[in-house]
Amino acid sequence: MTPSIRRASPGDITAITALGDRVVTDTYAALTPPGYVDALLATYWTAAAFAATLASPGDHLLVALDGDGVCGMAEAHQADAESATLWKLYVAAHQQGRGLGRRLIDAIRAELIPTTLWLRTEYLSANARAAGFYTAQGFKFERNEVEWIGQTPVKYTYVRRRL
Ligand SMILES: CC(C)(COP(=O)(O)OP(=O)(O)OC[C@H]1O[C@@H](n2cnc3c(N)ncnc32)[C@H](O)[C@@H]1OP(=O)(O)O)[C@@H](O)C(=O)NCCC(=O)NCCS
């Protein structure tokens, strides 16, 4: 079935964190140093973090649903009148490559205030799938940044798209 997309509610949080446990681990475990995925999940994918997002008027949290439940999510923040940041965009493995990522970005756009000119995001530079996807969606390179996890450099690519 074609997934439906709607605003998340508190009752979705358990399913969103479960989606993160699966997709974040599948996406990053082979690309990052030991401990990276656990730290990411413990910081950005907790029930408390999503409850805070839902409580914040400048933040947007969407879920996609199919017959199996939550199969995708997107989280964005309205940074100012002209720009927003897409913090998370995750699609369950069985729905990837079927247009849901593109639809979630369109749905996030519809949540932003009409004066928004720029949508920014970042991805792990080694995440080739994300790089191809964001390029296909019209995002352009802004800069790279490196975070050191112990002795291991982890590189991020920052991109933006004119809306
Ligand atoms: C990256 C991700 C969000 C993309 O969502 P998706 O549903 O798989 O992608 P879509 O099917 O919506 O792709 C939309 C378009 O981008 C294109 N595209 C997708 N991946 C691509 C790639 N690797 N290279 C080139 N084009 C790509 C598709 O061809 C499609 O084009 P179309 O609209 O003309 O048909 C999803 O694959 C995912 O969740 N991956 C794992 C987690 C992740 O990496 N998230 C991003 C974190 S920053």
Give helix % range.
Answer: 25-40%
CATH superfamily: Gcn5-related N-acetyltransferase (GNAT)
Spatial order of strands in the largest sheet: 1-2-3-4-5-7-6
CATH architecture grouping: 3-Layer(aba) Sandwich
Mean pLDDT: 97
> Which structural class do you get from the secondary structure elements?
alpha+beta
Ligands: coenzyme A
What can you tell me about this protein's structure?
Helices cover 34% and strands 37% of the residues. It is α+β, with helices and mostly antiparallel strands. The chain has one domain (4-119): Gcn5-related N-acetyltransferase (GNAT) (Aminopeptidase, 3-Layer(aba) Sandwich). It has a 7-stranded mixed β-sheet with strand order 1-2-3-4-5-7-6, sandwiched between helices. Strand 2 and strand 3 (69-80) form a beta hairpin. Bound molecules: coenzyme A (COA).
